[in-house]
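PROTOCOL LOG
Step 1. Enter all chains and additional molecules of the complex.
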Amino acid sequence: MAVSVKAVRSGQVLRVKPLRRWFGLSQEEFARALGVGRATVVRWEATTGGPLSHTAEGKLVRALIEIKSLATKAFGHQAKTWFHDQMPALNGKTAHAALITRGPVPVLMVLRANWDGGYL
Amino acid sequence: MPFSPRASAIAEALRRAQPLRGRIVYRQVLFARRRRVWRPSTRPWRWNTDFPALYTSLEENVTIAERVKLTGARRARIVMGIADATVHRTLDLTDPSLQALLGVTPEELVAETYDVPQALGTLLFQAGIAGLPVPAAITVVAKVYPSFEVVRGRDRDVRKTPASGTNFVVFTDNLTRGDGYPEQNRFVCEIVGIPV
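Step 2. Run joint prediction.
Step 3. Record the structure below.
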């Protein structure tokens, strides 16, 4: 989908490169997490910055933004290391592995439960 | 196949509702959420969907295991609340005969997917049940983190992670006169899972 200058200026475009780097994901891993091809991620980073907020990919990127926010609120400076712990709520997988293989939703559930006090 | 017990089984199950009186329950939240210790969740979790539920445990180590399930080897500062719960319309879903009557297995109640517990919880909420003792889904926690450390003030205590236990889920919209969970005590501690 073509992205207009207006959309970029209005903040409807979600910038993926800083997010991908924060999660420590390669372009290939980031693409798998969002269910898109690596070429799409390469194009986003080289041109528009990322998907539009309201698209299917945009929703997944917004989930990643919420994951980053909740992990930071819950674990502070340990937020990034949390992604590499074995997580019982993810059946013993790490959140990093779950992001790549299952996408952002299961990881977001874990962090929401952590913040909300719900049991999974 | 979707979970749909027979109406007669539900009716019989509801006849088995018993008051839970003066039972100590434990509830922990992240320290950053300390003002919300006894506030129910409005998001859907294992036993609720679009109605609020308060997730507590009947043993302290079980509620800590529920936290380690989400925090793993990261040190988490939590507030532990301890309350004296009375809930008149309570149905004990840890009872094997009740599980059999409703046509559910213990495995389904602690499975990785929540289809059965959420369907059953919704059905019982709609029938007016306010309290559910349920099996805790913490076997995987004990496998990955066989022990955890609790640091409270200067005291450090390494405890074995329980592989099973009982949670107590309160459907707060169904509480009636005389029901409640007045807090008896609370303390701040740090917990961290210790991996194999």
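Step 4. Note key features.
Chain A has one domain: 12-116.
Residues 12-116 of chain A form one domain.
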